[in-house]
Structure formats: structure tokens, C-alpha cells
Amino acid sequence: MTKRAPAMMALFAAILMAGCSITPTxxxxxxxxxxxxxxxxxxxxxVIGTIPWIVEKNNVGTMDIYGMRPDGKIxxxxxxxxxxxxxxREEMHAVGTVLEKKSHATWGVQFVWPFQxxxxxxxxxxxxxxxxxxxxxxxxxWIMARTPTLSENTYRNLLSKVAAxxxxxxxxxxxxxxxxxxxxxx
Length: 186
Fold this sequence. Notes:
The chain contains three helices and nine strands, in the order ααββββββββαβ.
């Protein structure tokens, strides 16, 4: 694979995601949470379940690591392993911009300029232990937690919440995490 291949793949994914954001839908808009405390939201989030977009397919041990930047934007590092948890750790970087200043629950995420994909915080546990990130098309979703695993009861509860927002939960796949090198402490 050439050095340009990852950049081309990211560009293709950005174009694809930008296209999803303008696709008309008959469903009502996703309902976001009323408030996100951005400093508290920062840090690592393990991806527990997802409807993967093209660059996520077959990735395991995935997580997003968020950090506030001096310019007020959010640095995002997507960490993953291809197919196996023992594979080399890889990263992609993006920049998040909070678009809705009152709740901080609607962001635009940019992997490649000038494309910005919608990022909607549609669920967030009061203790910030779990979150769900949605996309207006309902073709993408990320169920995330601060720990690499969730109890089956908690996971089912989150699936019920996203189903109530119009997601087809049969499309959501669990992401292997146990023993992952994606853990920032490893």
C-alpha cells in the first residue's frame, strides 16, 4: 500500500459521509442530549457497537480519544487494529467543531478538508460512562463506553434507546475489545 492510500481512503470516506448528511430522510431528526460537559466528555471512549462506515469495516479494538485544543476545537484520534486485536495499532486523526453552542451535542467532524460529517450525541449516561453518537441518516452509529466492555443489560438498554430513535438495531455489530492494544494504558 502506498503512503497516499490512507489519505485517499480518508478522502473517499469523507465524501461518502458528506453524501450521507444530505440524504433526505422520512424519519424525524435525531434527538440529541440536552447538554454535554465538554471537559468531562474528553478522553478515551471504547467503541462497543457500531454500524461501521467504510474505513471501520473489519476493525477491532477501536476507540475514539477526544481532547480539547487551544483553538476551542476537539482533537479526535480514532485508534484501531485491522481484523485482529494482535495486529499493529493504527490511528486516524480528525478535528471536531461544536456546532450547537448551547448543548454542545451537535458537532461537525472533519477527517479531510473541506468535508465535515455530522456527529450527534444522542445519549450520554449521567456519569459519562456510556455515550451514543448518531448520524442524521441513521446509517452510522457508535455505542461507546469508558471501559472495553459493558454488561449485557446496559448494552440492551442502549439498543432500546437507539431503536426508539429509528435505528435498525439488527445492523449494529459489536466490536471486539477484550485484551485490546487500543487501551491507552497499554
